[in-house]
Amino acid sequence: MKEAIAILTGGGPAPGINTVVGSVAKVFLNQGYRVIGLHHGYSSLFTGTPEITEIDFNLADSMFNRGGSVLIMSRYKPTAEDFEKRFNLDMFTENNVKLLVTVGGDDTASTANRVAKYLEEKKYPIANIHVPKTIDNDLPLPGNTPTFGYESAKQGGAAIGRVVYEDARTSRNWFVLAAMGRSAGHLAFGIGAACHYPMIIIPEMFDRSTITIEKIVNLAISSMIKRKISGIDYGAVIISEGVFHELSDEEIKKSGLHFTYDAHGHPELGRVSKATIFNELIDAKLSEMGLKIKSRPVEIGYEVRCDTPIAYDLQYCTALGLGVYKLFREKHTGCMVYVDVQGQIRPLFLKDLQDPATGKIPPRLVDIHSESIQAVLRNMMHFITPADYEAAGKIVKNPEQYDLYKILKWS
């Protein structure tokens, strides 16, 4: 029987998934392998009737430059009982599968590690190679290498962000945007910096203070006041959804929000508009203060996940896909494929990225005190400082309450 490889995609979409799958398929087809696409993520490994698509050259060639994922995705997270009672080894043996390629983000990578360990313990002769994906850019790849999909999502988000900012300038009002980023603020900061937004709020800013709704609102209003006393009556604030993950249960309760949670224990933020929530909170505070500033909400999330990959990700994801074959040929398993800044392909072993206590892969956070980030914060963003207290005091009481450095306890 012809040897085969199987590919699955997990988590949420990101530009470049089809590029990876198409590139993996092309190189293995060229080497005489059969390529099997598994639908519905990891659930396909724990059912007797997995949904399968045969990937031939025509399908691979038609998908590689498209957004979205031809292979249906899932956030399914197998339990220990799933591994012991429902792992479908027959699917591998009956199809002569020699390699399982998994494409996904942090949760998918962690599950890939569990699969690799399980296969090793059971002495199943099947290799497992993971391709790291997330628009959040929060997998800890060496050398600050981006995760695929991030650059395309940032490009799509910045396209929206630029139009929104032009609307603010044209209409002389404010917009409040929320951007995806469950654990880190890379996407929100990247979009905000690209669009010269006067206020960017990400969870990493609160490294010396606890995140509260009041502080988030006050940072937004700080920018509005600063621009007002500078004679600028428009602007935009972008906030990372990750701030919600850092709010205490008490803070969430105070906000009146009620979240449902996914299989990984994360609040299902996609069910609510974070931009609308923040905008209403800011609007309420402005009304209380007697400030007539109009703001409107804009959500940046699902609009960028299935965007067409830009050239950067098309080339990067092709290299990752071809790198899978290189690592497989070198008999690597239980690893991620990694392409460094010099273009060298090498394995990045999941066990080396794990937190030894939790077994999970910790997120890569924005280095908020790095020179480039601080340069944006100090020179592009607008917020109240002690030099503004006198002028701001004519508009609001206690202007120091809106001083970014005091809010964040950076001074």
Give structural notes:
With 411 residues, the chain is α/β, with parallel strands linked by helices. The chain folds into two domains: 4-148 and 309-353, Rossmann fold (3-Layer(aba) Sandwich); 154-305 and 381-408, Phosphofructokinase domain (Rossmann fold). 41% of the residues lie in helices and 14% in strands. The protein contains 17 helices and eleven strands. A seven-stranded mixed beta sheet has the order 3-2-1-4-5-10-11, sandwiched between helices. The chain has a four-stranded parallel beta sheet with strand order 7-8-6-9, sandwiched between helices. α1 (17-30) crosses α13 (311-329) and α6 (150-171) crosses α7 (186-194). The mean pLDDT is 92.
The termini sit apart by 68 Å
Helix- and strand-based class?
alpha/beta
Number of domains: 2
Number of helices: 17
Q: How large a portion of the residues is in β-strands, by DSSP E?
A: 5-15%
Quick one: CATH class of the largest domain?
Alpha Beta
- Give me the count of strands: 11
Order of helices and strands: EHEEHHHEHEHEHEHEHHHEHHEEHHHH
Second rung of CATH, namely the architecture of the largest domain: 3-Layer(aba) Sandwich
What does the overall shape look like? Answer: elongated
Low-confidence segments: none
Largest sheet data: 7 strands, mixed
CATH topology of the largest domain: Rossmann fold
| Rg | 23 Å
Mean pLDDT, to the nearest integer, reads 92
User: Roughly how much helix do the residues carry, as a percent range?
Assistant: 40-55%
* Spatial strand arrangement across the major sheet: 3-2-1-4-5-10-11
